[in-house]
Amino acid sequence: MRLTCPLCGERDRREFTYYGAAVYADRPEADAGPEAWDDYLHLRDNPAGETRDLWYHELGCSAWIEVTRDTVSHAVTATRLVAEREPPAAPKGRGRRA
Question: What are 25-37's pLDDT values in tens digits?
């Protein structure tokens, strides 16, 4: 599989390190039970089809890349720098420090 780094161009997958799905799970409240924390830490979706993943260009420019790919065909449909993403919304029930 080949990935296109937005900074370096097309590269072999072996230059990158896979870090998992590019989604943010809702963190349980601090007083949530053990089942909620177990689900948060260990359970992930495993879709057949399009997914967005985080990859680190370890043997290249050290950029974090978001890769949109199909898990069935392994076709890569898009790549972009994580720095270009919209930041995630602030967690519910928490304010930002000034």
Answer: 788 999 999 999 9
b/e code 34-63 from CB counts within 10 Å (16+ = b): eeeeeeeeeeeeeeeeebebbbbbeebeeb
The CATH number of residue 77's host domain is 3.30.2270.10
Which residues, other chains included, contact 33 with Cβ-Cβ below 8 Å and sequence gap of 6+? Answer: none
Q: How far is CA 89 from CA 15, 24, 26, 81, 94, in A?
A: 31, 10, 11, 18, 11
Total structural domains in the chain? 1
Q: What span, in angstroms and rounded, lies between the C-alpha atoms of 2 and 42?
A: 29
